[in-house]
Amino acid sequence: ETVEVRQALVQFLDNIYPANAGRDASWGWNLSSDPCDARWKGVDCRGTSSVRKIVLDEINLTGILDASSLCVTRSLAVLSLNDNNVFGNLPEEISNCSRLTHLYLSGNNFTGNLPKSLSRLNNLKRIDISNNRFSGALPDLSRISGLLSFLAENNQLSGEIPDFDFSNLAKFNVSYNNFSGPVPNVDGHFGPSSFLGNPELCGQPLSIACPTPPPVPAPTPAKKKHSSSKQYLIYSGYAILALIIIFLVGCKVFKRKKHGAKNSMAAENESSKPSSTSSDSKIREGSRSEFSIMSPATRKSSSLVVLSSPMVNGMQFEDLLRAPAELVGRGKHGTLYKVALNNSVTLAVKRIKDWEISRDNFKKRMQKINEVKHANVLPIVAYYCSEQEKLLVYEFQQNGSLFRLLNGKPKYFSWHLIPHSLELHNFYKSEMFDWGSRLNVAASTANALALMHQELHNDGIAHGNLKSSNILMNKDMDPCISEYGLKMVENHDEQFTTQIESIMDSDSQGSKKIFKADIYSFGVILLELLTGKLVQNRASDLANNVLNSILHLSPAIISLVSFLPPPKCLYPKLTTTYQRIFVSWIFQFHNLDVSLQEIGFDQLLIFLHNQRILDQTT
Ligand SMILES: Nc1ncnc2c1ncn2[C@@H]1O[C@H](COP(=O)(O)OP(=O)(O)OP(=O)(O)O)[C@@H](O)[C@H]1O
């Protein structure tokens, strides 16, 4: 180890076990020896020259955990301090130990909140903080997609239990804390013993039923994130839809009263329409049927445009209004409802929020998008636009999204391409989302994106919000890009844009940025496809775990990714940058210490194969 690491480790031990507290000189842990060569007590370097494990269990440590010093040791994967008397907080700086896979702090006197930064340790597989005095809410550890165990019993933690991915957890225990609210859906994976001793916790698998929530009025934007309960979402979905329906039906009744029967559905027939604005005319020219739900005076501001689609041939707005609707989810840019029409067609209706776009521009935009067809882009079935409301209608895709595929509801597939460990590999083997399928998703999405970009470049319409939940799997399990063009460049958050600029050549201004943002986002999807891990916090995950390591890559290694489809079928700009990211990610992700310069391509493949990293592909 370097002198800097040695110094930092000595500092760490001085803080957690002060020299005057009776520590044994034979332990090493001094500046004159190397932690690996001299085998410092509790240090394991596993045949390499860098510290991988520090295990200091049951040795009466009586100080504080100095994470700033500890995490100078970048290679640290396992930290175990079980059954000591370590006190104070778990510091935010623990997130500097970015390769940490196992964190065992059970049986100490830790106090205070768990640091939010814990959720950035996305290599973590096992966390044990049981039998301490931690308090406050849990950070959102559901972001750590490879987590196998979370043990936090016998603390003073409070708030609601976040929605972990319980299907992936092998061990989970939060008993004897102060958690409140409903137990998240554990899908039968864990019994009551994991939750006992939290007096304000309710719902399955505990025997205390939760109070039934009263029907909730339409939530205001400020309230929207406060509920995590599925039931609440469903109720509020019904409430919102009921309000929309009442509003729209009210408008229709008003229109009928005022103008008599002649206006009621006359506009349904295109030929019978009165003259309208140029944009309305354009829409009719494009073989669409359009009908209004407002009085003629406001018709322009509130019409459902049904685009030509055999699936909903003859669908009328009333059909949409009458059909039962279910709230599927709330995204950053709106709410999605599943609407079942009575002719067994199921639609997805996206209600977009806070999009300040004029009615005409919205229509033109939808029209342009609709003109470009690609088998891997989900077509818009219909749209609706008024001052207050924008709705987009798509065919509902029963097979869910790529996000879901990768994040593992077993109903579909496992999220593991490259198994994190043998146990998980075997567990999920039967329903693997195989490498070939992933390449198909990557190539089809790239081709579709390339075409959309090419055709819509002059109009400045990029996707704007490309991510794995917007890649839907159609009935043949082929990917379809959904919600193309629903976000404009000015809506991008600053951090995201800065991140994009830092990795792309910075020749672009204004609307070009959003095309680059798509390419960046596509890279994120590739990473997720390759690793099976979510890249949720784009800025930090990518910066910390991926992009930094590109700098250390030997160009020869790039050829490793020859298992990708031929470059011509991928979007050309992706080939170099993302292949580099791919390879570096493999190394980062699996904590591999190999000298990239010294190892040849063939050897590398064998090495990765032996490490069970490429066993899907080689
Ligand atoms: N046409 C569709 N068929 C089936 N599921 C869909 C369809 N469109 C979206 N979904 C799914 O519904 C859920 C909610 O979608 P929504 O677009 O509202 O959220 P999001 O994609 O997470 O966020 P954002 O608002 O940023 O796009 C997501 O899981 C998404 O994959």
UniProtKB/TrEMBL annotation:
ATP binds at K350. The chain crosses the membrane at residues 232-254. It comes from Coffea canephora. Keywords: ATP-binding, Leucine-rich repeat, Membrane, Nucleotide-binding, Repeat, Signal, Transmembrane, Transmembrane helix. Residues 322-618 form the Protein kinase domain. It holds the Pfam family LRR_8. It comes from the Eukaryota. Its main location: membrane. This is DH200=94 genomic scaffold, scaffold_1968. One of its GO terms (molecular function) is ATP binding. Residues 262-292 are annotated as: Disordered. InterPro entries: At_inactive_RLKs, Kinase-like_dom_sf, Leu-rich_rpt, LRR_dom_sf, Prot_kinase_dom, Protein_kinase_ATP_BS. Gene3D superfamilies: Phosphorylase Kinase, domain 1, Ribonuclease Inhibitor, Transferase(Phosphotransferase) domain 1. It is found in: Membrane. PANTHER family: OS05G0588300 PROTEIN, OS09G0376600 PROTEIN. One of its GO terms (cellular component) is membrane.
